Amino acid sequence: MKSPKELRKLIRNSKIQTQTGGLAPKFVQTNLVILPKENAFDFLLFCNRNPKPCPIIEVLEEGKFEAITSAPESDIRFDVPKYRIYEKGKLVNEPTSIEKYWKKDFVSFLLGCSFTFEAALIDAEINVRHLQENKTVPMFITSIKTIESGIFSGPLVVTMRPIKKSQIVKTIQITSRFPNVHGSPIHIGNPDEIGIKDILKPDFGDPVTINTNEVPVFWACGITPQLAALNSKPPLMITHSPGHMFITDIKNETISVL
Q: Edge-to-edge strand order for the sheet containing 214-220?
């Protein structure tokens, strides 16, 4: 199994351009949001007010592109398989590097990702369906509103994983140990109660099989700030493409709580 550093090198050299679910399963993966300095404080406050979808792992100083704390020798401009470029709330490109977009006033945010607790679920013999089916986790826009901050506001986005009814309690217990990567579910069961009309038509990612003995379980998702960008329309915002995460050197076990 390759180390996070080796995987980042492969991504940087365009050897890996796929979604990162299942890669380095013992290490924390993160969502990425990059903003001009003038919008960074509003976003930091947005994260503090909405810690479930936006748990902060690291904030890079203005103009810096190495995640010194979480991934020494990394380069945030190249080490994500696919990025998204938003201009005034509109998606304009999905490049595999952001070197030509980089500016000296950029502030980068690394936010916790639910891929981290998936390794713990697998260790507990709880199936993670999108990994079994080699798909990107399904993500849905809900009717739940985030707490706005400055220019940032919008609906909560969730990921969904089908869980056997007999394993629901264990799943809650396991994921609750990881508050820095979305933690416990925000909803279990009927998707219509949180504004999801068709569980087989995700807004992002891929649909997955839900068996008759399973219940859809929903967790807050780091795509939430991308929706905030669509609503708030900052002049420029760069994120990861859904499922294409930044792989850190932080071991999952170091951020778990009892």
A: 139-145, 155-164, 214-220, 187-188
Instruction: List all residues 6 or more positions away from 68 whose beta carbon is below 8 Å from its beta carbon.
Output: 60
CA distance 43 to 64: 17
- CATH classification at residue 131: 3.30.2040.10
Tally of structural domains, the chain: 2
- Do 121 and 215 fall into the same domain? yes
pLDDT in tens, 112-160: 988 888 888 999 999 999 999 999 899 999 999 999 999 899 999 999 9
Q: Is the pLDDT of residue 226 over 80?
A: no
Q: In 3D, which of 86, 96, 111 has the Cα closest to residue 35?
A: 86
Query: Percentage of the chain surpassing pLDDT 90?
Result: 78
Instruction: Return the closest-CA partner of residue 255 out of 68, 102, 106, 119.
Output: 119
Name which of 33, 90, 47, 40 is nearest 62 in CA terms.
40
**Pair (164, 237) in one structural domain:** no
Range of the domain at 66: 4-13+27-114+232-255
* Same-domain check for residues 107 and 125: no
